[in-house]
Amino acid sequence: MNSLKPIDELIELMAKLPGLGPRSARRAVLHLIRKRALLLGPLSEAMAQVATHARECLNCGNVGTSDICDICADEKRATGELCVVEDVSDLWAMERAGVFKGRYHVLGGTLSALDGIRPEDLRIPRLRDRVEAEEITEVILALNATVDGQTTAHYIADQLEGRVRLTSLAQGVPIGGELDYLDDGTISAALRARKDI
Amino acid sequence: MNSLKPIDELIELMAKLPGLGPRSARRAVLHLIRKRALLLGPLSEAMAQVATHARECLNCGNVGTSDICDICADEKRATGELCVVEDVSDLWAMERAGVFKGRYHVLGGTLSALDGIRPEDLRIPRLRDRVEAEEITEVILALNATVDGQTTAHYIADQLEGRVRLTSLAQGVPIGGELDYLDDGTISAALRARKDI
């Protein structure tokens, strides 16, 4: 079936995307072929654009289309607050919430003895440099509440102790969360951090 | 955030794929940006190839890169058996099983009074023509075991009755299936069609 070669190749590449397997890649490609004028052409063009222009910010690790991302380039965001996140997707989540007005530092992962990821493999040395260079007054450790995330937070806190105010996101009941569905750890954290009404 | 425009556009287009929502589209795009040399470039190129070359077979509705698909063009597959399926994905599933040696006819959907899909909206008139022109001796109705699929099968059977042998796929317990997890309809169909050992 030589005439199917470009289609098979596309399916194979699509199946490498996170969240898609061989089956859903086939479905997606059939959908794309049906909507080739409306969707496949524009998608191919958009991918070519991103492939050419996307790069990581040399300062913070955010993705964008310039060497210094919009947030690092925006003087209004030099508030002295630096929010440390594991990944660009966490930065995007914070930005969608729209409440943080400072700058970010994307580590690019977490420390992991199992996977052999050391501080030098992440943007931790760069974080130390930025705390000095950008007159940072507060570092907010917004790492995931996983074992690796918390280990990494502890390591960074150790490194920066005494040089800057260190904070972390509050733990508690999520908005709209039902106690019955929450794990014991969250409930006990929420109880310990209870507030007067 | 103008520097994010190409990235946002790509996320918006990716979210239109079946099986991906805004959240998984963001994840997929971040993954693509990280692997832009290995994955994003080739994927963009593969999509451009498919966008340019993919077309539906004028004879059977299968997708390929020529006006007549490989199966219709293959003289060895002129066995007189014609397998009618709803969609190209069903044709691919049959081909993966690798047991059917005849040709296919892709309807492009099912009749549906609710959605206003009439026989002329599907490849049903074309099916009648093919039965004559290609000296078909058996039409296998391999439509999905849904209400719409079975309605369509009945309609086609009515149209072709007396002109050709009409068969449908056997219904029964799937290989590896556990009775406890099967619906009543499947169990009763399997019992009715029971075989001597």
UniProtKB/TrEMBL annotation, chains A, B:
<dbReference type="Pfam" id="PF13662">
    <property type="entry name" value="Toprim_4"/>
</dbReference>
<dbReference type="InterPro" id="IPR015967">
    <property type="entry name" value="Rcmb_RecR_Znf"/>
</dbReference>
<dbReference type="InterPro" id="IPR023627">
    <property type="entry name" value="Rcmb_RecR"/>
</dbReference>
<dbReference type="InterPro" id="IPR034137">
    <property type="entry name" value="TOPRIM_RecR"/>
</dbReference>
<dbReference type="Pfam" id="PF02132">
    <property type="entry name" value="RecR_ZnF"/>
</dbReference>
<keyword id="KW-0862">Zinc</keyword>
<dbReference type="Pfam" id="PF21176">
    <property type="entry name" value="RecR_HhH"/>
</dbReference>
<keyword id="KW-0479">Metal-binding</keyword>
<keyword id="KW-0233">DNA recombination</keyword>
<protein>
    <recommendedName>
        <fullName>Recombination protein RecR</fullName>
    </recommendedName>
</protein>
<feature type="domain" description="Toprim">
    <location>
        <begin position="80"/>
        <end position="174"/>
    </location>
</feature>
<comment type="function">
    <text>May play a role in DNA repair. It seems to be involved in an RecBC-independent recombinational process of DNA repair. It may act with RecF and RecO.</text>
</comment>
<dbReference type="Pfam" id="PF21175">
    <property type="entry name" value="RecR_C"/>
</dbReference>
<comment type="similarity">
    <text>Belongs to the RecR family.</text>
</comment>
<feature type="zinc finger region" description="C4-type">
    <location>
        <begin position="57"/>
        <end position="72"/>
    </location>
</feature>
<dbReference type="InterPro" id="IPR000093">
    <property type="entry name" value="DNA_Rcmb_RecR"/>
</dbReference>
<keyword id="KW-0863">Zinc-finger</keyword>
<keyword id="KW-0234">DNA repair</keyword>
<keyword id="KW-0227">DNA damage</keyword>
<dbReference type="InterPro" id="IPR006171">
    <property type="entry name" value="TOPRIM_dom"/>
</dbReference>
